[in-house]
Specification:
Blueprint: H1 8-25, H2 34-40, E1 44-48, H3 49-53, E2 59-65, E3 70-73, E4 78-80, H4 92-103, E5 108-110, E6 113-115, H5 118-129, E7 139-145, E8 153-160, E9 174-179, H6 181-185, E10 188-191, H7 199-213, E11 218-227, E12 230-240, H8 247-256, E13 260-264, H9 269-276
Length: 279
């Protein structure tokens, strides 16, 4: 380099390139070298759960109507506890539960597949399994209260079109809400059949949510009514989002290097703990 200064850029470039090749073999490529020093000082890694530790592929596996009935979902259909195929057109409670989830939803169907936010797409998929394709298009939305991490619910105010392919009667403006169980319950005064919600009802639902959470399921409650603070509970949907296969190895590598790993999520504590215990 001293003899031929023009060679300095080439020497530096080749040296850096060799370093990058060695790092690439370790599956680590960085744009700025000081980042490596920063990573070496890390003692705690905080990771989001959904889509980072999990596959971000939500699938609704269980449904509970407000009258206490339980349904399960596979890839194509919905079944009751006796394994009988559920028919929504003949089941008002189940239809109402799915209706709330489909109407209070910003996902959409493309090529017979739900697209959008994973949670909303999973709920919309239930509508497809129930044979309610296009149900959301039969409603006119006049107002929306967007979901936020503070209040943990979403609500829309909609009404049926006067003419609709499901031959449902046109009605007045109705609020449809979905969200965290305890937050939706705070807006409910009755269940779907009009029976007032009691402390017993509330405790049963809270216990159910905890039970489903302990199975690693995300629980979303559904409700509807004429007034936002006087809703009728329709039921809950429980969905599963499996952990990514490679996550366990990455966490073990971090922990063996003395780095503590923390999971950050808006899900219920029971759901987060169960996902954290997955191998």
């Amino acid at each position: 380099v001293a003899a031929i200064p023009e060679g300095l850029p080439i020497v530096v470039t080749v040296t850096l390139a060799l370093g990058v090749i060695r790092m690439a073999r370790k599956h680590a490529i960085v744009k700025k070298l000081p980042i490596v020093e920063t990573l070496g000082c890390v003692t705690v890694v905080c990771s989001d759960k959904t889509g980072t530790l999990t596959c971000n592929n939500m699938v609704v596996t269980e449904l509970y109507t407000s009258d206490g009935r339980h349904f399960t979902c596979d890839h194509n259909n919905i079944y009751d506890d006796n394994g009988v195929l559920a028919r929504c057109h003949g089941d008002d409670e189940l239809t109402r539960l799915i209706e709330v989830g489909v109407v209070c939803n910003n996902a959409h169907v493309r090529d017979n597949k739900a697209m959008g936010h994973p949670t909303e797409a999973a709920i919309l998929e239930v509508g497809l399994k129930a044979g309610l394709q296009g149900l959301a298009d039969q409603f006119v939305r006049s107002e929306e209260r967007a979901f936020s991490s503070e209040h943990k619910w979403m609500a829309v105010r909609s009404r049926l079109r006067s003419v609709n392919k499901f031959e449902l009667p046109s009605n007045k403006q109705v609020w449809y809400m979905k969200g965290a169980v305890e937050r939706v319950l705070a807006h409910c005064v009755s269940v779907s059949d009009g029976t007032p919600i009691t402390a017993h009802h509330t405790q049963q639902l809270v216990n159910l949510a905890a039970h489903l959470g302990n199975k690693g399921l995300r629980v979303v409650a559904m409700a509807a009514g004429d007034e936002l603070n006087q809703l009728s509970l329709a039921g809950v949907m429980a969905m599963w989002d499996p952990p990514r296969p490679e996550v366990q190895g990455s966490i073990n590598t971090l922990m063996s290097g003395g780095v503590s790993v923390k999971m950050i999520t808006g899900d219920a504590m029971e759901t987060a703990v169960t996902i954290g215990k997955q191998d």
